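Table S2 (continued). Query chain:
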Amino acid sequence: MLKIGTRGSHLATTQAGHVRDALIANGTEAELHIVTTAGDVNMSPVERIGVGVFTTALREALASGEVDMAVHSFKDLPTAPDTRLHLVTPEREDHRDALIARDGLTFEQLPQGAKVGTSAPRRVSQLRAMRPDLDIRPLRGNIETRMSYVQRGELDAIILAYAGLSRGGYADRATEVFDPDTLLPAPAQGALAVECRADDADNVRALDALIDEEATACAAAERQVLATLQAGCTAPVAAYATRAEDGELTLRTGVFALDGKTQLVETVTGTDAIEVGTRAAKALLARGARALME
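Corresponding output:
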């Protein structure tokens, strides 16, 4: 029986449950194993406790043999590969961002000065460009906690990844789902990363059966932007890629000033994910992306 390491939140266990079910459908018995992280214990902002806190504990549990596999939200992983581990990307969920607003309001219908919750610099910068009048507030906690701020009337709206809402059974709470050309999503948003130890041949084979080629290529191109920019997952960087039937990738990516006044956006096409991501990031750097990120 394979042990799949996961955080204990509803979203994390739901995501890991999809992987477990896929493994079982392929003939590999598996069960979930909860790994507690520092972030789960103290609920500190990720900026204070470190970007990788939610993934490090899972990777260490995997490397030590406590678990046989680990499931992450791909957008939360550092871009540097961990050579101890074998990583695959299964079928991807929706990559878009969603609005949850009081009274069923859409983004355009939000009143002047509406209080909107999000802590992602990528979202903050784009929202300020779209609606400078908004009062953007920090937002912490799991999905249920974040949604409760709207339910209690403390915020007029919040912005969340639609993938998390869908996986958690809350898709109907979204009052609007943003077109990715309007609100560019985070690199690899909606994608999962599933890892096992690289020297475990049986588990490598089991994971390879879950690979989705389109999700793998698109996520690789998007994350290569981050790697080339040397930016972390909390940087004001966005990217999403699509792949045509002939294998050609179209990558749209951007870097944004937090005040919303400057937006650098590039669209690049090609068939090699790493080359496409690298070329897009270099184009952004040539236009001054480094200064915006700093």
